[in-house]
Amino acid sequence: MAIDRRKQILLGALLIALAVIGYRQLAMTSPAASPSSNPSRPAAAPARGGSAPGAVTAPEVHLEALDDERPKPAEADRNLFRFKPKAPPPPPPSTSRGGPPTIAPPPPPVNTGSPQLPPITLKFIGTMNSEGKTIAVLSDGQGPPMFGVEGQTIAGKYRILRIGVESIEMAYVDGRGRQTIRLTGQ
């Protein structure tokens, strides 16, 4: 048992010696030089005083420039908080010589016709066949489904024009606002 105790003491002393040697090695080594933050200027440029290359010197500071007179701010005509109307474009160059410039008449207003009708809000959800007639099943999403054949009025304001396999053509009762509604299945 005395031999095991000697081995433990020897192992402890060896670990302490290695720790001291490792600490001294880390303390002696200097950290690596960090790269320059200014890549356009070489890191080891000699200073004006003629010091040895590789020596680190402080940059030159011109303190007397701080006492020089600074330019006064000029009056600016730009104000971000003031709005001005946009200037009109310059008149087009005249093609005739010596006479007054010719101005083209403004284009005539575009007639858009009657006001646009709102789209038909019904959904085409399917068809049924009864006694050789195709019946369209429509829904407005609020009440029970509505049924109709070609030429019939639905909801008092729409007329079914044509019933197809995957779509239906409808218009307002007066014939305006023709619209094709695809089968949604909902």
Name the features.
single chain, about 190 residues, alpha+beta, four-stranded antiparallel sheet, three-stranded antiparallel sheet, 1 helix, 7 strands, about 15% helix, flat
Descriptive overview:
- The structure is a single chain.
- With 186 residues, the chain is of the alpha+beta class.
- The protein has a domain at 123-182.
- The protein is 15% helix and 19% strand.
- The chain has one helix at residues 2-28; strands spanning 123-130, 133-139, 146-148, 153-154, 158-163, 167-172, 179-182.
- Strands 4-5-6-7 form a four-stranded antiparallel β-sheet, with no helix packed on it. Strands 1-2-3 form a three-stranded antiparallel β-sheet, with no helix packed on it.
- A hairpin with a 2-residue loop joins β1 (123-130) and β2.
Q: Catalogue the unreliable spans.
A: none
Structural class: alpha+beta
Percent range for β-strand residues: 15-25%
Extended strand count: 7
Terminal residue distance: 90 Å
Gyration radius, rounded: 47 Å
Strand order of the largest sheet: 4-5-6-7
Q: What's the tally of helices?
A: 1
Shape type: flat
Largest sheet properties: 4 strands, antiparallel
